[in-house]
Amino acid sequence: MTPATVGAPGSVRRSLHSLWLLSSRDLRVRYSTSALGYLWSVLDPLVMSGIYWFVFTQVFHRSVGEDPYIVFLITALLPWVWFNSAVTDFTKAFKKDARLVRSTSIPRWIWVDRIVVSKGVEFLLSLPVLVLFAVFGGAQVSWALLAFPLAVILQTVLLVGLGLIVAPLCVMFGDLERTTRLVLRALFYASPIIYGVGNLPGVFADIAAFNPLAGIFTLYRVGFFPDQWDTLTVVVGAAVSLGILGLGLLLFPRLERPVLKEL
Q1: Which residue from 3, 35, 112, 224 puts its CA 20 to 30 A from 202's CA?
Q2: Over the range 110-122, which residues count as b (16 or more CB within 10 Å of their CB) and which as e?
Q3: So what's the pLDDT on residue 8?
Q4: Which InterPro entries match (predicted)?
Q5: How far is 220 from 141, CA to CA, in rounded Å?
Q6: Which of 2-16, 95-109, 155-169, 209-223 has the least mean pLDDT?
């Protein structure tokens, strides 16, 4: 939510209602035009998990992560799919509905945040898969599972901030859409998904702490794998996420008018 939304309670309610309507529209369109519907929310991370599980457990002698490795993978791959799909959609958030963005009085931040909400709902709908693998894989659950909702909140904060920055910049600079895709590919391997923060040697672990996804994925995992806890990574990740949100809230109002001219 941007400073522009601060005002009368009725205005806030209307904005939130518009946010939910647009988010639910995205979900209806996604599922109504697909024969598999809900299954698409889980197929991508499942296929990725299966590939990495096979490579690291059956082909190579795995020296990273923890057992059960499939649960270790899924706890990071599910939120990664949320992050990756949301950031990818940010690059075309305004271009896709350019006419509506120009002609309606809906606050422009809603066109960004609806992506966070709709992709976040898909993430939540995929969590039963994690539960099933945790149960049948024999994963141990600890009180630290209470950190899971905190991870969801921090990831939401991070995505809203990134959306407020990436979406308008991609309208103004067309090459940023392709650049963002390249960055996401590199970020997948630079984030502790197929490995844990503890598997990184020395200075690399300290550098990785400045990747906010490292702290977020640690919070997702710690309920199943307590040894994955790393205070520096979590604290720095939370600070960077909040910093990105602050930067987005600062930049978005300044970029809004140039974006409308480009559309």
Answers
A1: 224
A2: bbbbbbbbbbbbb
A3: 57
A4: ABC2_TM, ABC2_TM_bact-type, ABC_2_transport
A5: 12
A6: 2-16
Q: Cis peptide leading into 9, omega within 30 of 0?
A: no
∠ at Cα 181 (235, 47), nearest 5°? 80
Which of 175, 204, 183 lies closest to 192, judged by CA?
A: 204
Query: Could you give the angle at the alpha carbon of 74 between the alpha carbons of 131 and 195, nearest 5°?
Result: 140
Q: Are 221 and 75 in contact (CB under 8 A)?
A: yes
DSSP state of 115: H
pLDDT recorded at residue 6: 45
> Taking a C-beta distance cutoff of 8 angstroms, is the pair 139, 226 a contact?
no
| Predicted TM-score (pTM) of this structure | 0.87
The widest CA-to-CA distance across the chain, in whole angstroms, is 60
Tokens of 135: 């149960």
Q: How confident is the model at residue 35 (pLDDT cuts 50, 70, 90)?
A: low
Return the closest-CA partner of residue 115 out of 182, 161, 171, 160: 160
- What secondary structure letter does DSSP report for 66? -
- How many C-beta atoms surround the C-beta of residue 246 within 10 A? 12
Please tell me the distance from the alpha carbon of residue 80 to that of residue 35, in angstroms, as a whole number.
24
Instruction: List pLDDT tens digits, range 135-144.
Output: 888 888 989 9
pLDDT averaged over every residue in the chain: 85
Q: Distance between CA 163 and CA 244 in Å, rounded? A: 10
pLDDT of amino acid 5: 46
Q: DSSP letters of 38-53?
A: GGHHHHHHHHHHHHHH
What's the Rg (C-alpha) of the chain? 19
